[in-house]
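Allow me, if you will, to draw on your knowledge of protein folds for a short while. The matter concerns a single protein, recorded as an amino acid sequence and a row of backbone structure tokens. Kindly check, if you would, that the fold set down in the tokens agrees with what the sequence suggests. You will find the record immediately after this paragraph.
***
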Amino acid sequence: MKTDMILDAMNEIDDEFLIISEKKRRRFSPKPLIIAATIALIFTITTPVLAAENEMVYNIMYALSPEIAQKMKPVRMQDENNGIVMEVISTDVHDSEAEIYIGLTDIEGDRIDETADLFDSYSINRPFDSAATCKRISYDEQNKTATFLVHISQWNGEKIQGSKITFTVNEFLSGKQNIEALPLEIDENLLKNQAKAQKYVRFRGGGGIGIDIEEVKDTPCLVPFDMPITDFGGASLTAVGWHNGRLHIQMYYEDILNTDNHGSVHLRDTDGNVINCAVNIAFWDKNKIGSYEEYIFDITQENVDDYEIFADMVLCSNLTEGPWQVTFPLEKE
């Protein structure tokens, strides 16, 4: 397929018509002649089905005209890749609402479990303006199948009929642990010593009570110890100490882009009351793979013995890559 010809043609189209963000696709209305010319070019160098099956060409077509692109997309209710089968189980349409049940089955191993998470790697292409969500609703251990519910609501309230939907998953997570209120046993000397701080870090995010983001960015963070204090497998306690009259507790979450490892730290006083941090700061490690997160508490050093320290963590052990894609009609009820 001469996809270079398509790209050359697309270079003649103003960029404002092809703005596609990483998380949300903003649709513009190009001039009808531009759409017609580009679609005509695609038809002259390939067949409609082949064009829709080529992801690059399909994305160009979808940016210009979702309705045309979806009409050209062939129906495929099941897709297998890497020993994983994704299948459309059923569709249910009620006026402007649609519910689609999608099954994800491991036919080669045990990579799917009750914690299966699509990790925001899915996309739902439809030829009409709507809101769409996807969530896991069940897991069948015997068949190694996780079922997801896709819910679509058309914005204008009109009935959904005669449309095709394309659902794509690029990867999913499994083997997730949800650890709640884990006591952190920290040496008493660490809880009473001053710690070495650094002001300039690869800031990733954060927040605080009554302070703006620029102030958060300027707040010094602890220098990680040479060795973790405690390793939890996917997360570790990397520094503890006092700086500028505040208690700092620093955690490190490994490979967050591929595992979604994350968590939080809080204190509890002698009455069991929860004390959340006044400031939290997240910053990248040197390879921009893992993330340090620092929790800063406004308590006095003299009263530190009156508090217990707890961590909440979500840790993942398995990432399975696809992609998988199904295209199916929304049957009228």
